[in-house]
Amino acid sequence: MEKSALPYLEWEILREPITISEVDDRTELPKGKKKIEIHRDEDYNLRATLYFKDSAFEGHLRQTSAVAGSFAEKFDIQGSYSDSVLYTLESCLIGDMAHQIQEGQESLDTVTLDLQGLKMKHKNEEEGTHLIEWYVNGPEDYVFCRVTNRKVMSSFFRERFASKEDKIDSIEIKRDAWSGGVDFLIVKTCDFQFLIVKVPKGIGPSWSSNIGIEYRKSWGRIPDMQEREKIEELCSFIFGRHLLSVGYTVYDQNENIVEGYAINPWGKEARSFCSKQYDMPPIRISNSERGKAEDVINQLLPAYYKMREPLCLKEALWNYWISRGMPIGTNLPVLAAALESIINGWFKYTKSKSQGVFMKKEEFEALLEEEIKTIRGKLEGKPNGDEIIEKILKAYEFGIMQRYRVFFEEINLTIDEHEWSAINKRHEFVHGRILFNKANWEEVTQHARSFETLLHKVLLKLLGYSGTFIDRSVIGWKDKQLS
Which residue did the predictor score with more confidence, 72 or 234? Predict the structure, then answer.
């Protein structure tokens, strides 16, 4: 840990294990006095142990255990520490009985607790003035462009007296710990501003590059959780790394903690995920382009806010990050699902010229009214008759390849032969036409890179970006102009 940093200001509330000494009673828990200890495991997931003395509780657990294949009902647990801090363990389930421990003169039983989140609320009269959302799997140092200086001042003072009035020795030593470096970005958008800050080394898990996104009321306002999620999604895309939230901390104007929240990172295996991930930004944001990430986030965030819901961008990026962890080739259908969710949103919710159809449904059905009646009569009561009629009634809609073509035309995006080949290859994996022992895996890898590049181009184009992008479909991963 850097001596020039204060950990409670630079990282989340579960830096160290937390003990909840007073736990409220409820029917799902053992009776009597109990306490809970919570920590993070090596994958940074929440782990909790309940300590208690209730000999009848194990029998109660057996009686109330869930039936195999069913879903147990989750519950919240309330607790406190020294009447100054209130805790809520969210969406809990009782786990396995563990061993007994000796504490003082008495033996205590233990049971594990599964939980999805831990909220901590300090009892004070001050309101929160700023909030920092914490993430593992942050980007490399090269994305940052602004400087922070940290300084911790300390002193040592000693006096010696031969008698009450006779001082024979006095020492005063002052030492300062200082550090500085390029480690944050500023984003000004809409009606507020926020910082993306690198967490100092030695704070947070060592296997991850950790960051915080800081919001202050004095910078406009503190956005709610749904809005912060949008910011997280776009920043992840621009950084080329999936930011994994582990919680947030709210501070007052004197930098005291008002509220803290801790959650499990996405995927449950954050350590493995972070070590396997590598930066794959859609545009060049390396040292030679210092400040580029800041500029692009500033430029694209308003458009992302506007288009996220109608174009299903959250769902598209969700599939995109899942595909990044999959074997090459098998990730093609998931990449296609990401792009097709955007295409579906485009035809359904925007002012698309075609709306994804050759003609309106009403016009089509009126045109073929007599033919449809005849077909219904012939197929009535026959196997698959309803399915055949349903297909006929949907003949006015574009097929999948036509949807791709018209979508690219309507957003005015040029698609090259590598990208069309990747789209076609996607069909082979979706419909099981690939024989793994006969596949050309170098070609499949090229298709996967082309599809990733295509998805990058589509997102950048829709968000109004007009600069260069990284083309990973060609050797050397060259920069090209987004036409």
Answer: 234
Q: Rounded to whole angstroms, how far apart are CA atoms 204 and 37? A: 19
- Mean of all residue pLDDT scores within the chain: 87
Q: How many CB atoms lie within 10 A of CB 386?
A: 13
Q: What is the pLDDT of residue 66?
A: 61
For 378, residues 6+ apart whose C-beta sits below 8 A from its C-beta are none
DSSP state of 137: S
Assigned domain for 20 exists:
yes
Q: Within this chain, do residues 81 and 148 fall inside the same structural domain, yes or no?
A: no
- Indicate whether 412 and 342 sit together in one domain: yes
Instruction: For residue range 169-182, list pLDDT tens digits in order.
Output: 899 888 888 888 88
Q: Rounded to 5 degrees, what are φ and ψ at 397?
A: -85, 150
Domain annotation covers residue 338? yes
Query: How much is the pTM?
Result: 0.87
**How many angstroms separate the CA atoms of 126 and 222, rounded?**
16
